[in-house]
Amino acid sequence: MIKNKKLNISKKVVLITGASKGLGYAIAVSFIKSGCDIMICSRNLTDLKKAYNKLNLLKKSNQKIYYSVTDVSSIQQIKKLVLKTLNKFKKIDILVNNAGTYGPKGNIEKINWNQWERTIKVNLLGSAFLSRELISHFKKNKKGKIIQLSGGGASTPLPFISGYAVSKAAIVRFVENISHEVKSYNIDINAVAPGPLNTAMLDEVLKAGPKKVGKEMYKKSLDQKKSGGTSFDKVTDLILFLSSKKSDGISGKLISALWDNWKSWPNYKKVLKNKDVYTLRRITGRDRGYKWGDK
Hints:
By secondary structure, the chain is of the alpha/beta class. The chain has one domain: NAD(P)-binding Rossmann-like Domain (Rossmann fold). Helices cover about 45% and strands about 10% of the residues. Strand 5 (about 145-150), helix 6 and strand 6 form a beta-alpha-beta unit. Helix 2 crosses helix 10 (about 230-245) and helix 4 packs parallel to helix 5.
């Protein structure tokens, strides 16, 4: 785990969605240990209170933690969340969009379409709208950090879990797009690919079974369950880095917590700023050594 003192993010106010359990809770713990004040949210009041109580045991006397029951698919509830956070802290420095859902699993023609639409609302529209709500605040302060959790399907196909894959690919494009809009305001927005995590979402896939998620996905999930998956520390370390001044100017990227050597990136900010490395791009025939498909 990163030595939190080196990042110097204490006293920052962090808003974290989907923070009642799993990765979201681990993210909240990492910010508390870094000396930050936090607002956590989730749809489930019982889980949220449990998380709040555990986090309170970790905080120092001068730190503040608040919670808000919020469904990020609701514009009205997002507005209330932002207003409540600003009323409590008077500012927001960092937004971590972690809330997400796999949604329905199965062939596209057989799944529940209302559930598919809800997946888009939570994973894409919720994150996009919450980011939108905070951008004016960040512009006013001429600084801000937005960290968006990506996921499987953003850069590779994820058959039978199409709502999730589509929403994650779209939110990564949103991140890069908005990074260009806000670059003159010292606002950095990046997407984090956490890698395979052993959370309730993995259990959800295993429960659905191979008939709904496909034999390949099911086997991968079984193997992941046995191996333990990606360590939460790898993900939270990257998120803390992206919240710190060390990452200032790094924006619009899709960063793998597992595979990218992001700790070296502060030495290459000029390259990262001027090149399209670590972004989603179309693969041409030329990229793969085929000459027959390109002009």
